[in-house]
Specification:
3-stranded antiparallel beta sheet, globular, 4 helices, alpha+beta, two-stranded antiparallel ribbon, binds zinc ion
Length: 160
C-alpha cells in the first residue's frame, strides 16, 4: 500500500457537529497516532469549535465542493491524500463526496477547470477566495483532478 494513504476503516463514519448540526469534514493525519481533526463547512456559524458526534438523521449535509445546503448526489471515488503547501498541512479526504445539482454537472463531465471556474464564482464572497483566489484554484484543482478522475458510481442522497 502507498505509505501516503491511510486505510479507511470504521473510524471514517460520518460525524456531525453537536452544536450546529452540520456534517463535519474530517482530516486524517498521515501519522495514525495523531488524532483525526474535524472542521466545519465554511457556511456553518463560526462562534464555536466543532463538537463531533456520530451522524444522526436530520444532520445538515452540504455540497463538498461549494457548500450548497442542498446536495443531491454522493459520488464514490478514491481516497485522496494531499499536501496543501499554503496551509502547511497534509490531509486525507474521504472517498465519498456530496455534490449539489450545479457542481454535479462538472463532476459528471470530470471537468476540473469548469469546476474551479464555477467555485470561484459561487464562493466569490468567501474570505478564502477573496484573499487568494489563485491559491484556492490551485488547491482545488490538485484535489479535484484526482477525485474527478477516480469516481466510479453515484447515488442519490435520500431526502429526509
Ligand atoms: Zn458546529
Ligand atoms: Zn456544489
Amino acid at each position: 500500500m502507498d505509505p501516503e494513504t491511510t486505510p479507511l476503516g470504521a473510524g471514517a463514519s460520518p460525524v456531525m457537529c453537536n452544536v450546529c448540526g452540520y456534517v463535519l469534514n474530517s482530516y486524517h493525519p498521515a501519522d495514525p497516532r495523531e488524532p483525526v481533526r474535524y472542521e466545519h463547512p465554511h457556511v456553518a456559524p463560526d462562534d464555536h469549535q466543532p463538537d463531533p458526534v456520530p451522524m444522526l438523521p436530520g444532520a445538515r449535509e452540504v455540497c463538498d465542493f461549494c457548500a450548497d445546503p442542498d446536495p443531491v448526489w454522493w459520488y464514490y471515488g478514491k481516497e485522496i491524500t494531499a499536501i496543501i503547501p499554503a496551509l502547511a498541512d497534509k490531509r486525507t479526504y474521504s472517498p465519498i463526496w456530496a455534490a449539489c445539482r450545479r457542481c454535479a454537472v462538472h463532476v459528471d463531465r470530470r471537468d476540473v477547470k469548469g469546476m474551479s471556474r464555477h467555485l470561484l464564482r459561487v464562493m466569490a464572497d468567501t474570505e478564502m477566495v477573496r484573499d487568494n483566489p489563485a491559491m484556492m484554484r490551485e488547491m482545488w484543482e490538485s484535489i479535484h483532478e484526482v477525485f474527478l478522475a477516480s469516481w466510479y458510481k453515484r447515488e442519490r442522497i435520500p431526502t429526509a
